[in-house]
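Appendix C reproduces, verbatim, an entry submitted by the partner laboratory led by Prof. M.T., so that reviewers can inspect both the input and the predicted structure.
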Amino acid sequence: MEELKLALCEDDKEEMERLMDLAQAAAVPVRVTAFENGEAFLADYRPGRFDMVFMDIYMDGISGVEAVRRLREQEPELPVAFVTSSQDHALDGYRLKVAKYIEKPVTKEDMDSAIALAAQWREQAAVEVVLQEKKLSLPVNRLVLVEQRAHYLLFWFEGGGTKQAKGRLDELEPQLAGFPFFRSHKSYLANLSHVVGIDQGLLVFCMKDGQSVYIRRDLLKKAKNAWEDWLFAQARKGAGL
């Protein structure tokens, strides 16, 4: 199994050592990155870097609640565990769709349960497609766009990672029908969950990581409607409607 990438944000050194020991003793391989406060975490964070975040609530500087609020602006579904000595922020946890609310001291059972949830989330976030009779597992939540280049597809992921496979968009597109992808051009398939805006003058989707995805002029209105429909659906989901 590919190692899970965990972020531990905790300003108490003793508690951080405990979290590190528990994570590294898990039954699945993990790669742990430690942060001593919310500012350090946000300065280093980028979408797609982690499979789960353990966030202390009470820290110097910005609180864990504020750090997760900013995180949610970029990754609405990433599993997050609040680690705290108080239940006072249970409502914040609900509002921010926190997966776990763990009271200190964290136990082995707490850590194992959280890591199992992270592994399940990553597995569910991947879809298996078939290209040129070959199977390919795609982490669709992290897939920003797919570009057709001659007889190959270039997959662009969060954080700048890429993957190439022989195939055609006509073959791939129907297999991603259950996910928020939009065919904006014969050579481009964009993930609407990574779109931050549309430049109608330049005819492009503006993506979170700074990339631009070309939109064919006759598809501009349809692209705009598709993105707005996705935003509306996310707003309803966030409101519990």
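The longest helix spans residues 220-238. Additional entries are available on request from the coordinating office.
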